[in-house]
Specification:
Pfam families: HTH_3. By secondary structure, the chain is mainly α. It is built from 15 helices and 2 strands.
Length: 326
């Protein structure tokens, strides 16, 4: 079997069109068409890239007497999954689909109390003949509806558990060429990931600015309540930006994790991330609880600069304790 026939069969085996293969090879569709029509032969670099993408050896592609469509590597140990390029791509697609569903659920839960604050603000000014009792009832009903919708999204993620278990719940090894392909994909995606992560974190940081400014310069309760709703909305926007892109980047990293060596720097970053996941939501809850209890919004904003300094001190303390642990 000649090279042209092998390219056609391998491409169709993966379900790719000529355009899709051309995109992965960074060539034009016409080039792929010429290869498959035996009108031209790929150069050596393209042969190597084809072997990595199709998970076959270069000998298989170049030697006409090689007819068997077998992958280069078999599982080295029993019980270890052998992940092909197609399976790795499907895993990433499922992780992205799961992230889209989870993001909707998280946004629903974060935005659940926004109608409550809006109705309370309307009750403060007696707009729409809104009373405090009516505002409370409507707000609580909206909270329950939003939370129920959010939970329903979380439940839907169960449909992908079987598809991702081969990589996340069991030891695996990558087929020949998969690591280099995904390493390149992650490298190209890193700039997009960093940009969206920065934008999302910016939304988190500035989310309390409107509330802080209104608290300092205005004591009208309806405006303050509306700014709380704005704070929640900006947090939801930040999560909507960060969660999908983080899931995709993590999916690439999970595929490559068999070759990743955890450094001391990465371990420190993980410890700081775990602390942040607990610390900042707790600080936000303390800020809102203290502010609503005392209604001293012009004073309670001091929680944020003090909390930022305290977070740095806690990170240092965690590292000190970890260093002393045998």
């Amino acid at each position: 079997m000649i090279l042209a026939e092998k390219i056609i069969r391998l491409r169709k085996k993966l379900g790719w069109s000529q355009e899709e293969l051309a995109e992965k090879m960074n060539v034009s569709r016409q080039s792929v068409s010429k290869w498959e029509g035996a009108n031209s032969i790929p150069d050596l670099n393209k042969i190597i890239m084809l072997s990595q993408i199709f998970d076959v050896s270069t000998d298989f592609l170049l030697k006409d007497d090689h007819e068997e469509f077998a992958t280069v590597n078999e599982a080295k140990e029993p019980g270890i999954n052998h992940i092909s390029l197609e399976q790795a791509n499907e895993y990433v697609e499922h992780k992205i689909a799961m992230a889209a569903i989870v993001t909707k659920g998280v946004v629903c839960c974060v935005c659940a109390t926004m109608p409550l604050f809006f109705f309370m603000a309307m009750a403060e000014t007696n707009r729409f003949n809104m009373t405090g009792d009516i505002a409370s009832v409507l707000g609580i009903v909206c909270v329950l509806i939003f939370v129920a919708i959010g939970v329903s999204f979380f439940i839907k993620t169960n449909q992908y558990q079987d598809e991702i278990s081969a990589i996340e719940d069991a030891p695996f090894e990558l087929a020949y060429g998969v690591h280099s392909v995904f390493h390149e994909k992650r490298r190209h995606f890193r700039s997009t990931y960093n940009l969206r992560l920065s934008v999302g974190i910016f939304c988190f940081i500035v989310s309390f600015f409107p509330l802080m400014c209104v608290s300092i310069f205005s004591f009208e309760q309806d405006i303050i309540l509306l700014m709380v709703a704005v704070l929640l909305f900006m947090i939801a926007v930040g999560l909507f930006i960060i969660l999908p892109v983080s899931a995709k980047y993590d999916a690439y990293s999970n595929v490559l994790k068999e070759a990743v060596k955890e450094t001391e720097t990465s371990r420190r970053a993980k410890r700081a991330e775990k602390l942040a996941e607990f610390y900042w939501p707790l600080l936000t809850a303390i800020y809102l609880g203290w502010s609503f209890w005392t209604m001293a919004w012009g004073t309670t904003w001091i929680v944020w600069p003090v909390g930022a300094v305290l977070f740095g001190a806690l990170v240092g303390l965690v590292e000190l304790l970890h260093k002393d642990t045998p």
